[in-house]
From TrEMBL:
Gene3D superfamilies reported in the protein's UniProt record: DD-peptidase/beta-lactamase superfamily (3.40.710.10)
This protein's name: Beta-lactamase-related domain-containing protein
Annotated signal sequence range: none
Span of domain Beta-lactamase-related: 60-436
Amino acid sequence: MTSQRMTSPRKQRHPTFRLPAMLAISLLLATTFGHADTSWPTTADGAEAAGFSVATIDRLDAAMEKIVADNDVAGMVWLLAKDGQIATYDSAGFASIEDQRVMTKDTLFRIYSMTKPITGVALMMLHEQGLWDFDDPVSKHIPEFADLEVVLNYDEAGNIELGPVTRQPTMRELLNHSAGFGYGLSGNDPVNDAFRELEVLASPDLNALISRVSNIPLMYQPGDEWVYSVAVDIQGYIVEKLSGQPFGEFLAEHLYAPLGMTDTAFYVSEADRERFADVYRWDSEQGKLMRNPPRPDRPSYLDADRLESGGGGLVSTTHDYARFLQMLVNGGELDGQRILSPESVETMRTNSLRDGLLLRGGDNRPGQAGQGFGVDFAVIFDPEAARSKQGEGTYYWSGAAGTWFWIDPVYDMFWIGMIQSQGGNRPGAANMRQIAIDIIYDELNN
């Protein structure tokens, strides 16, 4: 069978009125959860309160400050917590070099793919209500996917052989990126080319996104390979469909409000614009950091009608994401608010890839030994094989503009690093992620 040009209708958009995210969530907190104190974390409790030596945390802070001083990034906020105590919570540099806006603890960041675990938690909340099961075919919840095909062969001349799927991809595979979907972020193959041609990630809303994806074949048979994909945007659509609420509204009501995540949303209100960090890249010709211009093919982050992308659309703060991660560390609860059961959190952070399938494998890549994937988290299930200093079961992810986090359940510990860097690094730039791990675990493992 030869490929046909894949097209998809654009859904007509209608104007909507929305309260600014911060105001809407504040109202929810006041009316639904009373006057619960959700200010934590505000400052560090100190190295010793969290079980570290002062020397270790001083060394960690100095290393992060040097990364900023060396112009590897314009600015950074970092936080390390252990046993519910904050060992360090600090910032350095600028949110905007040109505007001389200093990076602060309440700076807003594009967290991109760190949106994914939030979407996964939302979907697991609906699993606890019995609204879906891991072995469900995805097409049970998205009938538009009932007739998906898969690429069998293709050549450089543009000839593509498509065939039927051996079976429908399951929800479990959708959650661990082995369902076979593409993404369009990289790859020179018919599937990723089609994602870019149909502008899937620039869809005006989730209905349009699903319509476009339904016209694109799978890259592989379901379960055959781990392929980083549009799967979590699809999950956001499923949350919307099963809950009967717009995706962003569901998150605000059932996750942000009870956790006190007052600054997390799919857009930035005009009132919060001054807190929104710019994104920088290293310009080799000029020998300095340069601010990235806004993307012309996507709505502004100040547009409340932006796509509610479960795979990469959220803006958040270090404070908000710390509360989200501490909820997971606590087994699904924070400050008396139960979000998930401990069993659901355990499921999320447990590798669910079939035997022999490894994170980032495929296309003749061997994959990362000792690492797999759970529900929207990568999981280090064998630290020795992964050559990791971190504890068994450490789960993590990151964002396209450099934000990153990990949770180590062995030590009841998590880390957040917030930066905005995309498009090129300074030659010889420090590996900030590994530096943080080395300093933290040099004390814990000795």
